[in-house]
Amino acid sequence: MITPGYVRTMAAYNAEMNRRLYDAAAKLSDAERKADRGAFWKSIHGTLVHILWGDAQWMSRFSDWDRPATPIKESAGMLDDFAELRARRDKGDAEIVAWAAGVTEPWLADDMVWFSGSLQKEIRKPRGFLVTHFFNHQTHHRGQAHALITAAGQPTGDTDLFIVLPGPL
């Protein structure tokens, strides 16, 4: 389905796009970042926190990250301080890039089994499929954050993969 090169490319894209979004969001006041803008996770801040929550949830399954103690429905409130959020985002992105460097074809082809708290049942799916979901989740919610930040008056630059990265990794 996907290759280790795809995983490395998406990890690099994720890190760069997060850097751009956080740079733009940092130009807003805390009140502007936390204002309810009618998005699914309410605010820019809440959306950014939820993305990190999702990354931590999946990376606790893929690697050795700690699983978030906060339930999904409360994920947007997991962190209140923007500086702490940004520091965790930067650290997380570096760890995702390092993890991606070690992903292999056999690892992607193997199934993963885990208990889903949101579905309240055991799930078995191919890791390649789940890694695709992992990156899709980031891109989906980052698009929401991008729209909110842009609407708040802060440009984030191009977001197209072929413009952001020089090519596949």
Structural overview:
With 169 residues, this protein is mainly alpha-helical. The protein has a single domain, classed as dinb family like domain (Four Helix Bundle (Hemerythrin (Met), subunit A)), CATH 1.20.120.450. It is built from seven helices and two strands, in the order αααααββαα. The chain has helices spanning 4-26, 30-34, 44-62, 82-101, 105-109, 127-151, 161-164, and strands at residues 111-116, 121-126. A two-stranded antiparallel sheet has the order 1-2. Strand 1 and strand 2 form a beta hairpin. Helix 1 packs parallel to helix 6. The longest helix has 25 residues, at 127-151. The radius of gyration is 16 Å and the shape is globular.
What brief labels describe this structure?
169 residues; mainly alpha; Four Helix Bundle (Hemerythrin (Met), subunit A); 7 helices; 60% helix
Could you name the ranges where pLDDT drops below 50 across 5 or more consecutive residues?
Answer: none
CATH classification class: Mainly Alpha
Number of helical regions:
7
In CATH, the homologous superfamily goes by the name: dinb family like domain
User: How large, in whole angstroms, is the Cα Rg?
Assistant: 16 Å
Please state roughly what percent of the residues sit in beta strands, choosing from under 5%, 5-15%, 15-25%, 25-35%, 35-45% or over 45%: 5-15%
**What is the subunit organization of this protein?**
single chain
CATH topology: Four Helix Bundle (Hemerythrin (Met), subunit A)
* H and E order: HHHHHEEHH
Q: Which structural category fits the helices and strands?
A: mainly alpha
CATH architecture: Up-down Bundle
Q: What can be said about the biggest beta sheet? A: 2 strands, antiparallel
Gross morphology is globular
Helix percent band:
55-70%
Record field, number of beta strands = 2
Arithmetic mean pLDDT: 94
The side-by-side strand order for the widest beta sheet comes to 1-2
Ends apart, CA distance between termini: 17 Å
